[in-house]
Amino acid sequence: MLHLIGQLIFGFVIGVIAKFILPGRDPGGVIVTGIIGIVGSLLGTFLGRMLWGGAGYQAGWIVSILGAIVVLLLYHAFVRRQKTAA
Hints:
Elements: H1 2-21, H2 29-51, H3 61-85
Helix pairs in contact: 1-2, 1-3, 2-3
């Protein structure tokens, strides 16, 4: 249980850092930022396993932030496309 809480806090911090690196107007605020950070950390771990390590690889801060930036860019593109379609 504590590991899960730690992962959620880590993901939220990663989301906030990614948001500072790639600012923009995002609907959803804190909750969306946390979700983007968690998903970005998971994406960073997945990509790191493919590139550098095996099943035991866990993404560090930098790879997690890069993953969160990728997710944030995809989120911006999706929101932008939704606004132009409406």
